[in-house]
Amino acid sequence: MPTPRETILAALHARLAALPATALRGDVLPERVPTAGLLILRDGEPGEPEVTLSPLRYHYQHQAEIEAVVQGAARDLAFDTLIASIGAALAADRTLGGLCDWVEAEAPRPVDLPVEGAASLKAAVIPVFLHYSTADPLA
User: What is the predicted pLDDT for the residue at 37?
Assistant: First the structure.
């Protein structure tokens, strides 16, 4: 049985997979970026939990990251559209179907990535905070 952490990350990945862009989890940047864009979900860091003792609960603000990448002549518009679609997907259900308390993304940190002999990539890292509680930090 998967842990709450894995269940939440899988639900986030499924939410990203419903977008037109290709969504991967934990993979390396492929040689070719799909026309609709590419999203790579990084599991990130759960951080130090706040603990309550009665009942014993560990409250996490887990920081995952989404790498969003587009390529092509109209990459600025494609990038903007991709970022907006991520925001809309997260805002549609901030609890991922009741799996976590709240999902919140920060503003993207854009980066232009040059590619030798091809149109450069436009990319950003989007921090996503997953707020959830569990009875055991390992389960």
Answer: 94
